[in-house]
Write a sequence for this structure.
């Protein structure tokens, strides 16, 4: 497919005027590699390196592991689709997002591999969005969207088949493939079998207040580590008896990057998800 045709289709389907984003801090030292338009809005085409796209690889972050695995395939005229245009690592706080490796960006340019990013647009409520995809994996029937975020609605509230949080925790761990955090601020009962889901970094005060107002006492998100950033959220959850389950930034958002392969396949494009490693420090 012509690259410009794909970019226009993605723009039409995912990028709406009300959505905003800002990755200026994370792209400041790689400006020579990124598109002029991306420098203005930080949504969409990051690196325009090919005129033809024969295959798409999807990933949550453009980590060295992900990018090198693509380079090792020795392919040209392809695209890397990422949810984030930088690499997450909470262990490197306060700079939790790291810029893409310059040497790998140069190799991508030489190999004619473009990079395309949908952060807020993929968090926004749609068939492929981060929280919808996670809720689907958990078997949650979505009732409504919540969590306003940069013009998007980044979370959902839905109904689960489970009545107690132990069963839900077991299910959560089974789908992401590793341990999850559990901040027990209430009993084991899932009130009215309702669950709030905000994949990624949803453990913030404003979202906890919205969940409380929805009458929900069970919250699933990604990053739940107790620190200065999350203290107010944890304090509110404890005071208002909201149980929190966390599955890491990566593991709660990867299902959207898997799901969007189906979107690309509908455009008759080969598509493959590239797995990465979760940062358990998120828990």
């Amino acid at each position: 497919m012509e690259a410009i045709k794909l970019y226009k289709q993605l723009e039409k389907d995912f990028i709406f005027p009300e959505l905003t984003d800002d990755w200026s801090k994370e792209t400041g030292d790689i400006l020579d590699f990124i598109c002029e338009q991306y420098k203005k809005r930080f949504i969409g085409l990051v690196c325009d390196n090919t005129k033809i796209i024969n295959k798409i690889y999807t990933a949550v972050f453009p980590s060295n592991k992900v990018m090198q695995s693509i380079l090792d395939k020795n392919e040209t005229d392809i695209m890397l689709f990422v949810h984030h245009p930088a690499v997450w690592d909470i262990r490197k706080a306060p700079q939790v997002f790291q810029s893409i490796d310059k040497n790998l960006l140069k190799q991508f340019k030489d190999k004619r591999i473009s990079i395309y990013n949908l952060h807020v647009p993929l968090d926004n409520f749609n068939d492929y969005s981060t929280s919808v995809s996670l809720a689907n994996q958990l078997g949650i029937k979505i009732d409504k969207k919540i969590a306003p975020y940069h013009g998007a609605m980044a979370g959902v509230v839905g109904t689960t088949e489970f009545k107690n949080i132990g069963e839900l925790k077991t299910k959560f761990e089974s789908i992401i493939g590793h341990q999850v955090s559990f901040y027990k601020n209430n009993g084991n009962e899932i009130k009215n079998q309702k669950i709030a889901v905000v994949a990624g970094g949803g453990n913030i005060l404003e979202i906890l207040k919205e969940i409380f107002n929805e009458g929900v006492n069970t919250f699933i998100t990604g990053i739940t580590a107790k620190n200065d950033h999350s203290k107010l959220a944890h304090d509110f959850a404890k005071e208002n008896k909201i149980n929190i389950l966390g599955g890491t930034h990566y593991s709660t958002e990867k299902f959207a990057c898997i799901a969007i392969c189906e979107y690309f396949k509908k455009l008759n494009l080969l598509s493959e998800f590239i797995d990465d490693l979760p940062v358990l420090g998120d828990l």
